[in-house]
Amino acid sequence: QKEVEQNSGPLSVPEGAIASLNCTYSDRGSQSFFWYRQYSGKSPELIMFIYSNGDKEDGRFTAQLNKASQYVSLLIRDSQPSDSATYLCAVNRGGSQGNLIFGKGTKLSVKP
Amino acid sequence: DADVTQTPRNRITKTGKRIMLECSQTKGHDRMYWYRQDPGLGLRLIYYSFDVKDINKGEISDGYSVSRQAQAKFSLSLESAIPNQTALYFCAAAGVGAVDTQYFGPGTRLTVL
Question: What is the Cα–Cα distance from A89 to B65, expressed in whole angstroms?
């Protein structure tokens, strides 16, 4: 079983819509969860992290965590063409002192 | 962020050559990491270091070695490069805290012919 799974996409949404990106993880001991955005050929850029069950909002971005279901998601409201990128979910494996396990990413395309 | 820099940004080399990729960070973070990224395979951890005296292998360390010369510097070496080491290489740094966010350098695109 893959440790961190994401739908590879591409996920296509119209400009102004809500984009919903999903991630599941296998290690119940995982403690912290991260979303990174990566433009083609560029480095991953942190969007936000979450470590408590529930929702965390930062501007147009909302991260949602459900540890019982081992599920974390990222919602992007009012999607813009500039949001078109690959979104990486990363999970801090409990007990590994800060090592992150990355999903392969979901490619998002926002159409004008 | 951690102000992580990597040199070189691009490198083309031949099979069998020794290559060193360098990484520096300016925020005094203790933890540093080397990843490679391949299309379809995502980010994979090569080596990581929690301080100058602590070096650990990641999931794909074969064919690579590292050196933590100082808290701010972490170098990755390919002793004898081979074509399947062609990839995008990222260095990352992280502090120690409740949430250990990793900040990435701009990457080095390595091509082994």
Answer: 27
SS3 (DSSP) at A81:
helix
Q: What is the largest CA-CA distance in chain A?
A: 44
Q: Do A98 and B41 touch (CB under 8 A)?
A: no
Give the tens place of pLDDT for each residue, B27-86.
Answer: 888 899 999 999 888 899 999 998 899 999 998 999 999 999 999 999 999 999 999 999
- What letter does residue A56 receive in the DSSP assignment? E
* φ, ψ of residue B85 in degrees (nearest 5): -95, 5
DSSP tally for chain A: helices H, then strands E: 0, 11
Q: How far is B85 from chain A (nearest CA, A)?
A: 17
Distance linking the first and last C-alpha atoms of chain B: 35
